[in-house]
Write a structure and sequence with these properties.
Layout (H helix, E strand, L loop, with lengths): L4 E7 L6 E7 L4 E5 L6 H10 L4 E6 L11 H8 L4 E4 L8 E4 L4 E4 L2 E7 L8 E5 L2 E5 L16 H16 L6 E4 L4 E2 L2 E2 L5 E2 H7 L1 H4 L3 H9 L9 H10 L1
Parallel strand pairs: 3-4, 5-6, 10-11
Antiparallel strand pairs: 1-2, 2-3, 7-8, 8-9, 9-10, 11-14, 12-13
Helix pairs in contact: 3-6
The protein binds fe (ii) ion.
Length: 238
């Protein structure tokens, strides 16, 4: 039987932020992942381009600290019954909480939830066969910072363990992050990577002790995003 599933990557202007639309053409269902305030039209345009499939889920990888989420807007717009989030979230609005290993079905596409805390406590990656939506856990050439709230020691250890989990995925798994471009000291040119490429070239993945990793995660990072505490609070309000 002819079957096609699509992961569409929407790079939002010069921000380097990335939203995704997961689309099953067989059942004409889709899901919106990590949408952002001010970039709603990018999502609408993509849904138009796909011929208006039904939107089954609005999904977040984590509570963003650098940009206001548009997930509440899309959840209301398409009446999806609550934003898909990790059960570790402190979000006060309508949401459906996931656990590690849960499966979300979008038409015939199976999306596996991987709880990967570290950047935030509530971080999920989402695995779609050989494609990983890695959120702000794993970037091209770097990982997501741990210094925006919470206990840095605890978060460094959580991220260290989450990365070990991602390393166990098949080497050819493609990695689709929530940011492309500049992250930490690295400027990525591509818009996706693979587990193999990251294990070969990503400094953060080469570190094999928690002590060294803590040092890496707490030294030499760029300034924190403006108003990051308020942005987190706004994104938790619903
Ligand atoms: Fe983030």
């Amino acid at each position: 039987m002819y079957k096609m599933s699509i992961l569409n990557q929407l790079i939002l202007g010069k921000t380097g932020c990335v939203s995704y639309v997961i689309y099953c053409s067989t059942k004409r269902e889709c899901a919106i992942v990590d949408s952002f305030d001010g970039f709603e039209e990018d999502i609408h345009e993509e849904i138009r381009r796909l011929g208006y499939p039904s939107v089954k889920y609005v999904i977040d990888t984590h509570t963003h600290a650098d940009r206001k989420s548009a997930s509440v807007y899309f959840d209301n717009e398409f009446k999806t019954g609550g934003i898909i989030k990790s059960d570790k979230t402190k979000f006060q609005g309508s949401c459906v909480k996931t656990k590690d290993g849960d499966i979300l079905n979008i038409g015939e596409i199976e999306v596996k939830v991987m709880h990967t805390p570290g950047h935030t406590y509530d971080h999920n990656c989402y695995l779609i066969k050989d494609k990983l939506l890695s959120g702000d856990c794993l970037f091209i050439g770097d990982v997501g910072r741990i210094d925006l709230g919470g206990d840095p020691h605890e978060k460094a250890e959580l991220l260290y363990k989450s990365l070990r989990k991602l390393e166990k995925l098949p080497q050819n798994t493609r990695v689709y992050p929530n940011h492309v471009g500049a992250a930490h000291a690295i400027d990525s040119e591509g818009s996706f990577s693979t587990i193999k490429a990251e294990m070969e070239s990503n400094e953060a993945l080469k570190i094999k002790t928690i002590e060294e990793f803590y040092q890496y995660m707490t030294e030499g990072w760029p300034p924190k995003p403006d108003n990051w505490q308020k942005i987190i609070q706004d994104n938790l309000t619903g």
